[in-house]
Amino acid sequence: MSVVRVDPFQPEQEIIKRAAEIIRRGGLVAFPTETVYGLGANALDEVAVRRIFTAKGRPSYNPLIVHVGEVEEAQQLVRSWPESAEQLAQHFWPGPLTLVLPKRPEIPDLVSAGLPTVAVRMPSHPVALALLRAAAVPIAAPSANRFSEVSPTTAGHVEKSLGDRVDLILDGGPTMLGIESTVIDLSGPQPILLRPGLISTEDLAPLIGLPELPARQPSETAPRPSPGMLDRHYAPRAELRLFAPDRRKEAASLAARAVEEGQIVGALLLSALDAPIQHAIPMPHDPSAYARLLYAALHSLDDLGCHLILVEEVPATPAWAGIRDRLQRAAR
Ligand code: AMP
Ligand code: MG
Fold this sequence. Notes:
Blueprint: E1 2-5, H1 13-24, E2 29-32, E3 37-42, H2 46-56, E4 65-67, H3 71-77, H4 83-92, E5 97-102, H5 109-112, E6 117-121, H6 126-135, E7 139-140, H7 155-162, E8 168-171, E9 182-185, E10 192-195, H8 201-204, E11 239-243, H9 248-260, E12 265-269, E13 279-282, H10 287-303, E14 308-312, H11 321-331
Parallel strand pairs: 1-8, 2-8, 4-6, 5-9, 11-14, 12-13, 12-14
Antiparallel strand pairs: 2-3, 3-7, 4-7, 5-6, 9-10
Helix pairs in contact: 1-6
């Protein structure tokens, strides 16, 4: 395995060529996208895709997102391209929005975990786009971390989690957005939000002519299994506890007790908490800025050996929905 630095704005041709060659030969390349680092393999090569599952320790019922370098490439992977897909792709691609559509048979069942649909996305990160275009194949890429861990937003996070299970890590610096893409299912009679992200339902609904966008109910017995929907996901090693802003007293005494017992306590806070917390990280009040910092903050609290991480709940508004979702999953 090697880690190679690459210019995030103008990726060096030779480096991209080398990475593309690895993908075309069935290898694994970790690369930056604007959301998180991805662990990529040729989506049309079943043996290569299997290596992703093995490297991550990811269960095979968990489908992967297929990344493309052009909108036309996505259209060739699916059996239908409804007007809603056209509108959303025109508006948000390249960018952090994943569309789920009926899949063509060329896509190995392993990619879609046996589902009749495939998730496709055109990322906007220059390194990801350059790699996709040089490889000239669609690239299946989940986040470049072991299954259920916090997603990587730096090459260092990838190296720590996957080490030499990857053939090459392209280090393009920290990712710009910091949480995974919004996922919307367009394969059924009506669009369904499968995973919230920084593109919110408020952004999406008007473009597909809906007053609002239904989210998949957690109680629904997974007719559409999707990795981001797994209960414990995006979790740090430490125990993560969420507290409502009006429960600061309880949170402070929880911290005090833990510290008394010799635990190392961290916190992600939107406002001051009067407690003997060793590693309190003040978080931004803007959702994009919060998302950019979130995973790096959790990785660093893990590295500091925290046993407990207290996290102040974020607002229950559409703009924060992606962040709320990741925090709730990490807290289970
Ligand atoms: P990640 O671990 O970031 O690659 O997450 C993959 C995401 O893709 C999940 O959250 C799912 O919502 C989604 N996904 C991938 N393929 C499908 C599919 N065929 N049907 C529904 N969701 C899918
Ligand atoms: Mg993941």
